[in-house]
Amino acid sequence: MKHIDPQSPVSFRANIARLPQKGLPVVIEADAAQRAALAVEHELLSVEAYRAELLVTSWKRNGVKVSGRVEADITQACIVTLDPVEAHIDEPIEALLLPEDSKLGRQGFDGGGEILLDADGPDGPETFSGDTIDVGALAEQFFGLAIDPYPRKQGASLDAGGETEPAENEFQQKLRSLLGKS
Predict the structure, then answer these.
(1) How far apart are CA 61 and CA 106, in angstroms?
(2) Where are the domains of the chain?
(3) Rounded CA gap, 121 and 94, in Å?
(4) Beta carbons of 152 and 78 less than 8 angstroms apart
(5) Which residue ranges are recorded for the region named Disordered (predicted)?
């Protein structure tokens, strides 16, 4: 059973009350214990490497923008053979956060707040409270989304039968004869 608000194994709280003009660079390099916890959390066989490089900058009046990337080397179980499947994750991170009491955050999308979103751009702003944001947990969310939910070992397929070509059904046979292809 998961906790209501589990702390991320790679939790890193960035103080956003006094962000430098050029932004706050954050690098999270997971140690062995953190990688083991990530593996358990995301149902992986193992996490060999995990690194997030982020830049936390001011956005609009009192919002925060977190950008960067998360890279990891993971090993998952193949969904067909259960053999280990190695994968490399290299996921860009871009998130906008607004204080809970922010007018933009409160009005959201229906109150006429001017939040213009690009379909290919970052998601709508999330909210935060207090003077810190857990940018480590944010990076872990992007890591989790980048994991292949159906990892397959090269050459493994879900076909149980030995047939390589599926038999044509009646409709396909009629269509083939109508098109004059044998």
Answers:
(1) 14
(2) 13-158
(3) 8
(4) yes
(5) 154-182
